[in-house]
Amino acid sequence: MAFLLIALVMLISFGAAAQDTGARLDRSVLRPTFTENFQHFAASASGVVLGRPAWRTTYTGGDRTLPNNHEAEYYQDNGTMRVVGDVLEITASPAPDLPLGLTH
């Protein structure tokens, strides 16, 4: 949630800076389109765990990376994500034997 909120604020801020007309955005009328409180966490490649919705760890078509932007990351299901105090922690670290010559 914090990451999504930061990304939204950055997008709004950069957009406003790029088109600065002197008008200010009234943020009091903004409403979230998505929230996650992370009181529990489940993730899978399909986006379903035990018949319930979960965080999906793949892109459309099952891809686990975005090769067109030259990422080195390969998104996995095993042990890279955990919830600590209602905050989702995602860990990126070097891993051997990843496909496509990816390193993390």
Low-confidence stretches: 1-9
Provide a count of the helices: 1
Main sheet makeup:
2 strands, parallel
Q: Helix and strand string, N-terminal first?
A: HEEEEEE
What gyration radius follows from the Cα positions, in whole Å? 17 Å
> Portion of residues in helices?
10-25%
> What's the end-to-end separation, in Å?
23 Å
- Principal-axis shape equals extended
- The order of strands across the largest sheet is 1-4
DSSP strand (E) fraction?
Answer: 15-25%
The helix-and-strand class reads alpha+beta
| Count of beta strands | 6
The mean pLDDT is 78
Please explain how this structure is put together:
This protein is α+β, with helices and mostly antiparallel strands. It has a domain at 41-104. The chain has 1 helix and 6 strands. The strands form 3 sheets. It has a two-stranded parallel ribbon. A hairpin with a 2-residue loop joins strand 2 (48-49) and strand 3. The two termini are 23 Å apart. Mean pLDDT is 78; it is low at 1-9.
